[in-house]
Design brief:
mainly alpha; globular
Length: 80
Amino acid sequence: MRLEPELWEALTEICEREGQDMSALVRQVESAGHAGGRTSAVRVFIINYYRAAATEIGHAGASHGPLARARFAEMARPAA
């Protein structure tokens, strides 16, 4: 599996946070059934993991701009 160094670092951090072996975590991600293959599934998993953990306070602390209220409400709705 080919990932950029930053994604390997992120995946390693996720494994540490979740107390999982990397191969077990990747198998778990693969079993979720992402249509794009293993590498794509892992990339999507990493971004979704961090998006789920992101907060407006965290973004403000990183000097990111705020998310428009309408977009925030749209993201909070469950997918159909």
